[in-house]
Amino acid sequence: MNLRNRLTLGSASVLGTLILLAGGVIHGYYRNSTGRWNSFLVGDPHQGAKLFFETKGCARCHPVNGVGANSAPDLGFSRSPQSSLAQMVSAMWNHAPSMWEGMRAQGIAYPDLDREDMVNLFAFLYTAHYVDEPGDEGRGALLFVSKGCARCHGARGTVNDLAPDLANLKGIDTPIVWAQTMWNHAPKMEARMQQLGVAWPKFAGDEMNDLLAYVREVSGGPRRETALLPANPDRGWKVFQEKSSLACHSVNGKGGRIGPELGPGRQQPTSIVRFAGVMWNHSPEMWRASEARNVPRPAFDGRQLADLVAFLASIRYFEPSGSAQEGATLFVERGCAVCHGPQAEGTRNGPALRGRGRSFTMITIAAALWKDGPKMYRRTRELKVQWPDLTEGDAGNLVSFLNTPMND
Predict the structure, then answer these.
(1) Is pLDDT above 90 for 126?
(2) Confidence class of residue 343 from pLDDT cuts 50, 70 and 90?
(3) How many of the other CB atoms lie within 10 Å of CB of 325?
């Protein structure tokens, strides 16, 4: 064996050892955290539907896509103005006092919801609502042309032999399936675009959401996201390793440095569709980086991407980013500090929220609101403190603040 081959094998061996060591550290971090239960993706939407319509009585007030009573807002896909998880939790927080007052006035028993129940409920609402930022199908139609998609793909029955007509593609219009489809077909699309001399299109901001809204409108057919849940973050962690993602991306500071860090505390996409846009935008660069290191480009099938997304959600990848400093200011301004202290260190009126070895996400905020909210509400009335309203941005800032260590 010549020197070059020995060096190559030696480098590969060292890289493999480092990846295994990093994997052990990350897995320990993941397994020892409560984060794996903080995502609706691990919930069972069928159990959530049963909770909503039968055992917990949510449908006595709220309909979902027209099914149920109509004395409270419809939480379904086509009717609710709250589309992202952060928006839904913020609306739930703001609406809570009037909901509690209404239940008390009607003599409706307050249903118990534990963490598992809350995760299952949000899994159901996700599949009924496809929790994600809304898109504009009109802008999506314009993007379909301006980004060059129409050069290969037909739509609404138009004929184009280069790629499938979108009207004939069924079941690709939900966030996880869309992300998986876009990723798997990117290499073939790139080769075709190079033949046609078309530049690789990139999507910024909400453009991928707009494009998906247009695809939903023209494709139709059954939606398949329910079949992908409950996703399994443990399987997702294995997918993350098996697909060699750890060779390029780090989690919690451990792993490769070729691609961006995937853990919390950085500006990340807050939705699965935006995640699809990030994957698409960087696909050519990732493909070339993989080729240069003899790392096979991963493809995903079945539940693999759903499980991978569940793993990323468990490490707070999709949580809304925010400013811990602004969150600290909001915590005082909105009256939270009256009970919990200015640094959320706890007082005789309320427990400490920071430094307790747990992480906060939108799901944990919702679960805490449901469990302790009525008591909190009574306490604010006793102290003559106004119940704080939250916007989506407020929620991100407060979560960032609550997740900072006490010594920061």
Answers:
(1) no
(2) very high
(3) 13
Most confident range (mean pLDDT) of 9-13, 19-23, 395-399 is 395-399
Instruction: Quickly list H helices, 107-231.
Output: 115-129, 137-146, 175-196, 207-219, 225-228
3-state secondary structure of 273: helix
How far, in Å, CA of 298 to CA of 12, rounded? Answer: 19
Please give the single-letter amino acid code of residue 370.
Answer: W
Whole-number Å distance between alpha carbons of 34 and 315? 9
Chain centroid, CA 107 distance in Å: 36
Q: State the Cα–Cα distance between residues 82 and 163, nearest whole angstrom.
A: 35
Mean pLDDT calculated for residue range 360-382: 86
Which tokens is 386 given?
A: 């106004």
Alpha helices in 269-319 (DSSP H): 272-292, 304-314
What phi, psi does 301 have (nearest 5°)? -140, 170
Distances 19 to 236, 301, 314, 316, 329 between C-alpha atoms, Å = 17, 24, 21, 22, 40
State the sign of the Cα–Cα–Cα–Cα dihedral 328, 330, 333, 334. Answer: negative
Tell me how far apart the alpha carbons of residues 283 and 276 are, in angstroms, rounded to a whole number. Answer: 10
Say what the pLDDT of residue 320 is.
64
